[in-house]
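Section 5.1 Outputs to date
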Amino acid sequence: MTALCLLTALLTANYPSLLAFITPTPSSTAIKHQVVVIPPTLESSSFSNQNLTSSNLLASAEPSLLVATMDDAIKQYIIQNQSMQLISNSEVNAIEGDINAIGNYTGATDILTNEISCDTTRCNITLSRLNKSSDSQRWTVSDQDHWPVILENFYSTHNDTQLKVTKLFSDSGAGEQVNMQVSEQDYLTYIDLYSTMLLEGRVTPKLMQSLATLIQKTPYLYSAYSLYRESALDFYTSTNDDTFMLQFEKLLDQSPPEYRYSVEQAIDKFTIYASTNEFDKANTQLNIAKQRGADKATLIEFQAYFFLISNQLESAIITYQKALSLRPSTKLLHNLALAFWWQGDTKKSKETLNTLLSINPNDYFSNQLLADISLIEGDLEQAIALYRPLVAANNQSIDISNLGLSYALSGKYQQALEMAQLAVDSSPNHPNWILNLADIQLILGNTSQAYTHYKQVLRLNQEVDSRSAWLQRAQAYVHIGNHQAAIKALNQLKKMSQNDGEVFFVAALIYTRIGEHISAISQVEEALNSNIGTAWFNLPWFDSLCEIPKFSQLLEVADKPRRCQLID
């Protein structure tokens, strides 16, 4: 089974989502305003009730494009002002409760709400700024503006909205935005992509290419770069295809000087390199962001994230705790829980997750991490109970694959095969999912299909020098019978990562498969001591270890006394 190699994919797959919580600001000055932007609400009964024909189809879509325009304009204003920092949607969505809970749990200083009411030809906008009174936890409107908008010029509406935000924040010292001229048609193209890719969450190669073409045509449309970054990360996460990550790097290198030498561009590149495990390059971009004037709070959060992804876990924990002392944040709490888990402190990880779940019991990322911990610890009933609603609600390939893995460790191989195939169908070039599918096929006796997929895993990792790639190689090699290559991959892993439960498990698997049972038993013991659950040794490849009394003794100490008695 891919087993703990899958854990590596869990970590990698979560990076972009966690990173999306973090928003850069281009100034070394202290942040005065931590701003939550509540997504615009739209009342448009006249559009929703009318019969759509080819002639009024665009008109019916215009209110939703107006929502996207307002959302983009407000957020870009905040991102590009030195006295402000945007609290991301991901962090806001992690909170279950009213506006007071959102403001209090994010450490916001300001909340912006936006109400849009439309009829057939025009819309009325109400933009409100909320603050918390000093003697209570309740948020009330401190300033407000109203204005009408004609549904025909979205770029002008974008600029007008930013002027209105300037007025609401007249006490912040932030000036109005200076916008390079963009044609109405180009902006309409952009806002349509923004609505589809960001607000609807639909990212396809065709849409990515359309966005790249637009950036090349209109390079001064700076907000398009952040949209491309987030969409490329989503695509890379779900497919393991770095095509658009590489294309984004080229777009950044060709951007206008005003953007190419900005803090935002350094953060964009940090994102690329951090997500693709190019840690030296990522650290360089972090230093460049500092040189270009990134504020202290942002740098602390990015430094903590860098420590996390580069496996400097003690430093990550200390830095996240420092960041949390500056601002309460569900995003920072989640990353802290992740750091505790990777460090092997499951107790503190669960305590932190329980804090998050008390804020929002339905938070996707907290429940996903809790499911991952349950899987690794071998609490399969709990893992399945947690993964099933995640799959039903989000249908992410990582959760599908992990649900299949939970079934496999429970001996439910047909259900495991179904989930593994669904994960590969969703992300056909993701080596971890392919490795999972190959393992289930091998267990079920579909040797030819399994070997084909193992060789595909090796091809996909041919030029990759990362821990996850070597974990995948080691397992693929041993399953196709190339024992020498498997041992070489294992030796490379041990150089890269010491005292690592994943590596101990894979070593136990390799030594068992090649018949070196004494060495295998030693690695089983190390894996169990590293909080790897006994359920991982349910896999039939470990049956031969039952001939050695020490194996049963280890499992008995770990509360799995009957494993070897169940073999026919």
